[in-house]
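Let's study my pick:
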Amino acid sequence: MTKLDANALLAEAESKGLVFKMKSGWRKAMYFAGVLSCLPIITIPFGIWIFVMARRACVAVADRGFVVRSFTTRAYAYEDVERFTPIGMQMHVHGGGLVGALAGAAVGAVVEAKTQGVKGPIQFKLKGKWMPLQLPAHTVENSVAMVQALEQRSGQTILPPPAPGAVPPSA
């Protein structure tokens, strides 16, 4: 595994304009979690940490690797990534019979239609590691540009090519 300096990669990506912040909906959900964490007096430091994390969370794409910053800051080199795999968002409803299945399908369709850009996380497998990791592409602003920058720098195909006559996804 190649050891990369996450702060250096963040600075490089920022100078090239390749830092992708999280969507405002994700940040609002984290702020809500921070407020709830501050309700019990003993967890106020944890709630403050959630506020800071939500403000700083991003994905940065640099020439040698990429950085995912949310709860922790981790840098990954492209040469260590075996493959990228996009994963779709799926809605599972347990019980409820036919009505529950139809309700789950309806909610899944609404979320799919409302989501702009990449429709789910991108799983990446590191060489020599057993468990794959996930890149939260569906929660990143301008996710299509982020994936295109990853494809260009890593030399791997992440998203399948669009079908002939299909409208490309918007960022």
Observations:
- The chain has a mean pLDDT of 85.
- Residues 6-22+57-154 form one domain.
- Helices lie at 6-16, 24-38, 44-56, 97-114, 143-154.
